[in-house]
Structure formats: C-alpha cells, structure tokens
Amino acid sequence: MFSWKYIPIREGLWLILSGLVKKAVIADRISTISDFVYQFPESVSTFFAWMGVISYSIQIYCDFSGYTDIAIGSALLLGVRLPENFRLPYTATSFSDFWKRWHISLSGWLREYLYIPLGGNRISNLITYRNLLITMILGGLWHGASWNFIVWGFLHGIFLVLEKYVQDSIDLPWKENSFLKRGINLVYQVFVILSICLIWVFLDRELFLDRLSF
C-alpha cells in the first residue's frame, strides 16, 4: 500500500525549487549577457568576450541541470529515485574528471555501450586514443546531427587524448614536489575549465556558421 511517509517530500520539493531557480532566475537572466556578446562580437572587448563565454557556460549548466533537478525532484514525489546527473562539473580537475561529473547518464551510457565495446583502454594506447575520439564525436552527434556538434565532440576528444597521452607517456618532473604539484594542478584545473567554456561556443549552430563565414 502506498504511504506518504516513505516519500522524501522535502528533498523532492527542494530539488524542484533548486531547478526552478537555476532555470528561471540564473539561466534565463544571464543569457542576456551571452546573447549580446554573440550577436555583436566585433563591438566588445576581450574582457567582455570572455564574460560572454563564461556566462554562456553558466547558462548551459543552469538550464540543463535545472531541468534535471526538476525531473529528479518530481520523480521523488512519486516515490521514484532517479540517479544524480550533474556533480559540480565546473569543479573538475581534468577533462576526464569533467565527464565523470557532467551529464552522468549520457557519459555512462557512452562508456558502457560504445567506449568499452570498442576496446576501451585494454588493447593499446593508440587504440585507446582512437576510442576516445570516436566516443566523443558520436557523443557530439547525440546532441544534434550537424557539424558544430561534431566539432564540439572532436575537441573534447582531442583534449581527452592529449591528457591521456601526457599521463601515460611523459614523466612529469614535478611529481615528487608536492608544493609544485599542487600549483601545477591548480593551473591545469583553470586551463581545463576555461577550455571547456570555450568549447561550449560550438553548441550554438548559428554562431558556429557565422564564425566559419567570417
């Protein structure tokens, strides 16, 4: 027999409220910044261009994770617990870490049904790099069947391949120095997040085509 006492009502309502705030308060409002920058790119300074890139990145996250929070919260009110789909992705310390935090259901599906069946990282480094590229390109096509999504997936694949190559093949001299290692890791983390923010631009098809024609 159904009983409300087994339903996490407070948690469900909190997730729904969180999702509404992300979508209606943050994403919809901050989109005015990125929309202006992308409509008039020649008239803004480098600083405001970066503001547009970062605001667009925040918009995408709050838009997507907001809808997800609403869905998870609504499911909780019906007694169904859906898995977490975003885990603070912009705190990622590497490109591979980002894909453990962003759209977890999609990245998990791509890993289980594409990357691992292709051979994963079990055969050789070269095959691993190929598998990463194929997986990310097809992951881009999952978002839409156009060139901008292919480029978006390809760029993520390239960064994952380069990161994997450095980890596997290069003996980094600062590994033994904990202070230097922390500093380098922090710099790399900033590089990762800024790179991901830049790559988001390719999700906008009109902007992508406009930049090509330019």
UniProtKB/TrEMBL annotation:
GO biological process: alginic acid biosynthetic process
Single annotated GO MF: acyltransferase activity
Single GO cellular component term: plasma membrane
Annotated localization: Cell membrane
Pfam families, alphabetized: MBOAT (PF03062)
Spans through the membrane: 149-166, 186-203
Top-level taxon in the UniProt lineage: Bacteria
Key words, A-Z: Acyltransferase, Cell membrane, Membrane, Transferase, Transmembrane, Transmembrane helix
Membrane-topology annotation of the record: Multi-pass membrane protein
InterPro entries the UniProt entry points to: Ac/AlaTfrase_AlgI/DltB, AlgI, MB_O-acyltransferase, MBOAT_fam
Main location: membrane
Similarity section: Belongs to the membrane-bound acyltransferase family.
Xref: PANTHER family: ACYLTRANSFERASE, TEICHOIC ACID D-ALANYLTRANSFERASE
The protein's name in its UniProt record: Membrane-bound O-acyltransferase family MBOAT
Source species of the chain: Leptospira interrogans serovar Australis str. 200703203
Top-level taxonomy: Bacteria, Pseudomonadati, Spirochaetota, Spirochaetia, Leptospirales
